[in-house]
Amino acid sequence: MRYKNLGVPFDRDFRNDSNENFQDISDDIDKIVGTSNSAVFEQMAALLEIDSRNTNLIFSNGLLTTIEEKDGSNVIKTTTINYDEQGQVQSVSESAGGKTVTYTLQYSSGEVTGVSKTLA
User: Fold this and answer.
1) Is 87:81 a contact under the CB 8 Å cutoff?
2) What's the CA gap between 66 and 62, in Å, rounded?
């Protein structure tokens, strides 16, 4: 015998139970991750078969200030970068799904010494 005997009958009931379990797992993943491209998750582009998102980069005075992630014409996520007079990043805000997370950088002698995070 080439294969190990598992001692489990692979009959119709076993296959139906297995298929039902796989469907339950798939349904749970859909609940967590979402099924549309407008859901905001890092893993979304990898999981969807079609990724219709595009990214717009907006510059001001040679500095990247805004990143818009769009699904078609709908803005799904906006990242805003603010700079101080020396051109150092002062804060980065990410807005998606009605929430905004802002990371504010603290500097000492031109070196980043801390980052604080707020949620609004």
Assistant:
1) no
2) 12
Structural domain count, the chain: 2
Q: Which two tokens stand for residue 95?
A: 């807005």
Asked if residue 110 and residue 62 are part of one domain, the reply reads yes
- State pLDDT tens for residues 69-120: 888 888 889 999 999 888 889 999 999 888 999 999 998 888 889 999 999 8
Residue 6, helix vs strand vs coil: coil
Find out whether 31 and 41 touch, Cβ atoms under 8 Å.
Answer: no
Q: What's phi and psi for 35, nearest 5 deg?
A: -120, -5
Range(s) of the domain holding residue 18? 9-51
- pLDDT at residue 110 in the model: 82
